[in-house]
Structure to design on (230 residues):
């Protein structure tokens, strides 16, 4: 099993540029999560999908952030325009959710984003 | 809404025991525990469900007090490999059961020394 795959692993961009982060969940998983981790705010849930449908995006900080999941094997998190305060490690995680139960999440290696 | 973890940091010698606590002000459906090593992704350790069911690693134990909305992670006979930051993730329920939405605590840094 390849695990959750994220790309790029590192991204350095200038303020104002568009940034797109990509995630491939574990095959067969039906829930996908995007998290952001910083020293100041810890590990925050940004948005999550069940069966490709966005369920809760209340953690998305601003309209500059958007996420899509066009199919079960791919998701993107886009920041446009980027700002220095967006610098963080962005994790994607997936899980197999059945019938309302609680299940472990498997995290990808993360994308370290630096906005200068 | 973010759960509070204590202690913030702990230093152990190999073989010593530690307890990490997680406390929430909200009624919980479950508590998840993860460990993150420096520069790596969080790794799942255990889920504790209301009603007492547990899912996770055999060598790690934990408890969940539903009345107090508190969970504790017990690390016994610590090994060097136990070092890392431990996070609890709290999950609330709705009419359909688990919401699948985790709110992570502030983390507890554990350092095990030889």
């Amino acid at each position: 099993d390849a695990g959750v795959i994220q790309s790029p692993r590192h991204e350095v961009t200038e303020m104002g540029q568009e940034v797109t982060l990509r995630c491939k969940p574990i095959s067969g998983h039906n829930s996908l999560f995007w998290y952001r981790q910083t020293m100041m705010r810890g590990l925050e849930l940004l948005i999550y999908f069940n069966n490709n449908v966005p369920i809760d995006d209340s953690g998305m900080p601003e309209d500059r952030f958007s996420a899509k999941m066009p199919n079960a094997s791919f998701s993107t998190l886009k920041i446009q325009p980027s700002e220095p305060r967006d610098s963080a490690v962005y994790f994607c995680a997936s899980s197999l959710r059945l019938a309302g139960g609680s299940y472990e999440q498997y995290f990808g290696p993360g994308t370290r984003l630096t906005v200068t | 809404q973010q759960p509070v973890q204590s202690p913030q940091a702990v230093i152990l010698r190999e073989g010593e025991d530690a307890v990490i606590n997680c406390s929430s002000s909200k009624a919980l459906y479950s508590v998840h525990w993860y460990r993150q090593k420096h520069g790596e992704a969080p790794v799942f350790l255990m889920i504790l469900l209301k009603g007492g069911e547990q899912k996770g690693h055999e060598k790690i134990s934990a408890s969940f007090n539903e009345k107090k909305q508190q969970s504790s992670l017990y690390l016994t006979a610590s090994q060097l490999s136990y070092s890392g930051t431990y996070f609890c993730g709290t999950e609330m329920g709705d009419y359909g059961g688990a919401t699948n939405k985790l709110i992570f605590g502030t983390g507890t840094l554990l350092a095990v020394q030889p």
